[in-house]
Every structure is written in C-alpha cells, then in structure tokens.
Amino acid sequence: MRAVFPGSFDPATQGHLDVARRAAGMFDEVVMCVLTNPKKTGRLPLAERLALLADMTSCRWLR
Prior knowledge:
Layout: E1 2-7, H1 14-24, E2 29-34, H2 46-56
Parallel strand pairs: 1-2
C-alpha cells in the first residue's frame, strides 16, 4: 500500500523525513508530493525543494 505525504517542504527538514520514516513503517511506499501554497511566500524555488528531497530519496520506500 502507498502513502501520499503532501507539503510545500520549504525547506525539507529532518522532521519531514521523520514523518516519512514513520509512515514507511506502516506502508510499502511513501510518496512525497511537493506543492506550492499560493497563500505563502516561498523561501526556496521549486527546483531547489525538489533537489533537497531527491537527496533524501536514497531510501527504497521514499519516492
């Protein structure tokens, strides 16, 4: 079964990764969806947020 973890991840933190790890204990795969909140001023461009999460995807269960 797959879990979807949406968020702006601006920036992605160890706390986000901790939530994903906990979800991995309950699901086969965790999909982190990087979104933009139009009501907030972002700190990092989308490309940088995706790159940060890509660095975290060395885990088999994280996409």
